[in-house]
Amino acid sequence: MIQAHAVRLFTERGYDATTVTEIAEAAGVSPMTVYRHFPTKEDLVLVDQRARLVADLIAASPATQPLVRRIGRALIDAATRLTGSGHEGDLTANEQFLLARLRLMISTPALRAKHLDNHYALQQAIVDALGNDATDPDAAFHAQAAASACLAAMHTALVRWAEDDGRTELPELIAKALAAAFGEDVVESGSNEAR
Amino acid sequence: MIQAHAVRLFTERGYDATTVTEIAEAAGVSPMTVYRHFPTKEDLVLVDQRARLVADLIAASPATQPLVRRIGRALIDAATRLTGSGHEGDLTANEQFLLARLRLMISTPALRAKHLDNHYALQQAIVDALGNDATDPDAAFHAQAAASACLAAMHTALVRWAEDDGRTELPELIAKALAAAFGEDVVESGSNEAR
DNA sequence: TACCACTTTGGTAGTAACTATCACCAAGGT
DNA sequence: ACCTTGGTGATAGTTACTACCAAAGTGGTA
Questions:
Q1: For chain A, which terminus, N or C, has the lower number of CB atoms within 10 Å?
Q2: What Å distances lie between residue A41 and A3, A6, B57, CA to CA?
Q3: How many Å from the CA of A36 to C1' of D2?
Q4: Which pLDDT tens digit goes with each residue over B139-166?
């Protein structure tokens, strides 16, 4: 509830122009309570637990495929689940909220910065989930480079999705971004998930 | 001079544990003066004008090559100039300072976040420098995805360089990161620069 | 030397995001 | 009745940063 009020106020008045105290008043709680649930003002927009989902998808993917492909498919599959694709026309309330948060993240420097830093943590989770030999520094470096590049490509897809107001399917955009960066063959078809 | 004192104090006591007032005292100026030259505390570490250099290198690169290769070579060439490669053994004072700043950027969440956001601005500069048709949204999307992925790969190289205390040549690490993400053929040899 | 823009620097006061510490209160188990 | 526990609230303090205005150095001209 606090987060919903926060995103609404940020969207209406702007992020910097909205104080935490105002959010607390709108939500009917004390500023202390807001800080207890969201350690920083940025967290009011950025709370996001995709990391676990993506990491799980990667750990479940076949280790025989190239890194970029494993990671790319996991990102696409995660997006499919998050947006609940397959609808036509109207967006779900979940997607509306995601879009509102994404727009704030893109337009507000402080949020954009912290969001990108969250990707950094997600990158670590992905590298761990790949399950490579951690003792080989070259393999670890390879995994880091591949993961960071995939996440960056996904981020451009997120930006495009927001600019599009969610009209294009997010998984499709991510696939296009990955193809643009790594070549068409990386994400041709099918899912890594077991059926 | 202010920046040098700031980086020294941050390294000695930690970023959060050092106040801007303390930096001002160490540098022998007033806090106001610090804020005038470095709008935010983060900028005391992050001032960096690579953007222009990289963009120029890209604009000068042959448009016939694939995007990832053009961007990758520009990043490698820029790193070569910045570190003044070719030395053996000791690091230059310039490199020492770069390393100190980089270590702070990597270990301090606030700095890491803002640094990644700076990459975001650099990405825009790169896309502009590529000189593609801005009216074609698909081409623009392609360029954004390629640029963000390349920058992300370069960032992992920077991290590795810092972990290595600068022992490996930075351009070489960037080339390896790009190869790991995009394939060995992307950065095989030679420079884009006109001789 | 004297004068005059112009730039750089400094002081004061204020805002807002946090933090530490303590107190309160309702629910549940013994 | 008593104690624990988890959520809540108030108070006071620190610190990054801003707006506004005053002072001091800098360089060119007469």
A1: C
A2: 10, 9, 39
A3: 29
A4: 999 999 999 999 999 999 999 999 999 9
Neighbours of A109 (CB within 10 A): 14
- String of DSSP letters for B108-149: -HHHHHHHHHHHHHHHHHHHHHHT--TT-HHHHHHHHHHHHH
Residue A21 Cβ < 7 Å to strand C: yes
What pLDDT digit, counting tens, does each position of A86-137 carry?
A: 666 677 878 899 999 999 999 999 999 999 999 988 999 999 998 877 788 8
CB of A30 nearer than 7 A to strand C: no
Distance in angstroms, CA of B40 to C1' of C12? Answer: 20
Sign of CA dihedral B70, B71, B73, B74: positive
Taking a C-beta distance cutoff of 8 angstroms, is the pair B70, B58 a contact? Answer: yes
